């Protein structure tokens, strides 16, 4: 997983382009020269990245993904945009996420892959489509599932294999709401973080 440094992302900080105070009484840094030509998808390969969503999340939610199911959040899950079966799962696209602010967000990511989970459950057949239900069965079966919590300040982001690693977002300790933008694409061999 690659974490993008705050200083490498446009619009970070609290200064206006002119360096004057904005309506909130904060000042913003001038935008870097590369601002107008920068694309978040440049962190992915030359294959066009796919915009997937923008998510404005209220504060103090333990998990943020609700998948349009009446507001109930699903918790730790694996994405299935590419719908690749077990043998080809590692070839799935990666997610690029940027926290657009104004609040802090967290990435929750597990320490084992969905392919390892399927293997432990005996669901490693060629036709099996790994799913969030496999993660639930793994935990229900008494297997350990550790989770890392990675803080994302406004302007920070990540590239992660969300079709391989169980994950979710969180605003549990946030003082204000935040918005995140998401893209899918293949990793670039030339990307630097």
Using brief descriptors, characterize the structure shown.
three-stranded antiparallel beta sheet; globular; disordered N terminus; single chain; 193 residues; 9% helix; mainly beta; five-stranded antiparallel beta sheet
Q: Give the strand tally.
A: 8
* Largest sheet strand order: 1-6-3-8-2
Mean of residue pLDDT values = 77
Tell me the Rg in angstroms: 18 Å
Termini gap: 11 Å
Overall form: globular
**Helix amount:** under 10%
- Uncertain spans: 1-29, 31-38
The major sheet is characterized as:
5 strands, antiparallel
Brief description of this entry?
This protein is mainly β and 193 residues long.
Give an overview in words:
This protein is mainly beta. The chain has one domain. Helices cover 9% and strands 25% of the residues. A five-stranded antiparallel beta sheet has the order 1-6-3-8-2, with no helix packed on it. The protein has a three-stranded antiparallel beta sheet with strand order 5-4-7, with no helix packed on it. The chain starts with a strand and ends in an 8-residue tail after the last strand.
């Amino acid at each position: 997983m690659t974490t993008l440094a705050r200083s490498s992302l446009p619009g970070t900080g609290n200064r206006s382009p002119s360096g004057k105070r904005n309506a909130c009484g904060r000042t913003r840094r001038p935008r870097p020269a590369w601002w107008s030509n920068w694309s978040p998808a440049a962190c992915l390969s030359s294959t066009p990245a796919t915009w997937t969503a923008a998510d404005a999340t209220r504060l103090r939610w333990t998990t943020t993904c609700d998948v349009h199911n009446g507001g109930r959040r699903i918790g730790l899950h694996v994405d299935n945009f590419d719908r690749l079966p077990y043998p080809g799962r590692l070839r799935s696209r990666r997610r690029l996420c940027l926290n657009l602010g104004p609040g802090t967000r967290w990435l929750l990511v597990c320490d084992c892959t969905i392919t390892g989970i399927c293997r432990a459950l005996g669901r490693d057949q060629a036709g099996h489509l790994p799913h969030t239900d496999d993660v639930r069965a793994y935990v229900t079966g008494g297997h350990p599932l550790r989770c890392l919590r990675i803080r994302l300040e406004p302007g920070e982001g990540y590239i992660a294999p969300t079709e391989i690693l169980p994950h979710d977002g969180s605003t549990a300790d946030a003082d204000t709401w935040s918005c995140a933008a998401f893209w899918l694409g293949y990793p670039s061999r030339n990307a630097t973080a």
